[in-house]
Amino acid sequence: MQRGTSEKRQQSGPLRGALLAVLVSEREPLSGYRLTTLLERRLGPAWRVTRQSVYGALERLEDDGLVCSTLKPGFGGAGAGQKLYEATEQAVPAVAAWIAGPIGKEPVRRELLARIAMSSPENAPQLLATFEIYERECFAMLRKTSEAEVPLGSWRGLTMHLTRMAVEEGLQADLRWLTTARRWIEDFVAASGARSSR
After folding, report:
1. Which one of 34, 72, 100, 143 has the largest count of C-beta atoms within 10 Å of its C-beta?
2. 159-191 pLDDT, tens per residue?
3. How many CB atoms lie within 10 A of CB 150?
């Protein structure tokens, strides 16, 4: 299996549902670029939404008959135009089923956990460096989450606020976990060094 195919399948769950929900709620044909912008705004900074992942999900949604696309003519009727996507009639029940469906239980930091699980004591410096990078990313996402403007008084505002609140709580938990993990690794390395120097 190719790397790109595997990556697309991993990202398809929440992204696929969120993308379809945006198309249903907007009720008009939208470009992939506009869809990416709307997803970034509604999902918040903790999600890494790329145009490549959006276009991959749109392709699969189109294959499944949940989205259709049309080509908007180029400027002045010349040249290739912009591809626009819209939800089909089957999209509304698909969104309802996605919202009501089971939630995956994967931790957000699954790659970091895999690295820790497969490491050896010799990898402690690299793990600690990775913790530093992840910690900086968490703080950056916390700043973005707190700076994001969330419209109040509407359903969309409420859901955006709840999403950002969940992201903030998760980031705070990750930062607490990082502090503990760093301390445990540093303590282990110090104790191992003390034993070997005797």
Report:
1. 34
2. 888 888 888 898 899 899 999 999 999 999 999
3. 18
User: pLDDT tens for residues 46-102?
Assistant: 677 888 889 999 999 999 999 999 888 766 655 567 889 999 999 999 888 888 776
Average pLDDT over residues 17-43: 88
CA dist 31 and 188 (Å) reads 52
- E strands, 127-176, are none
Alpha carbon 66 to chain centroid distance? Answer: 22
Measured between its terminal Cα atoms, the distance across the chain in Å is 51
**CB half-sphere exposure, 18, CA atoms < 13 A:** 22
Q: For the range 85-89, what are the long-range contacts, defined as Cβ-Cβ under 8 Å and sequence gap of 24 or more?
A: 85/23, 85/29, 85/30, 85/31, 85/32, 85/35, 85/58, 86/23, 86/28, 86/29, 86/30, 87/20, 87/23, 87/24
CB neighbours of residue 144 within 10 Å? 14
| pLDDT reading at 6 higher than 80 | no
What is the C-alpha to C-alpha distance for residues 35 and 86, in angstroms, rounded to an integer?
Answer: 10
pTM, whole model, 2 decimals?
0.62
Number of other residues whose CB lies within 10 A of the CB of residue 125: 10
Residue 103 — pLDDT band, cuts 50, 70, 90?
low
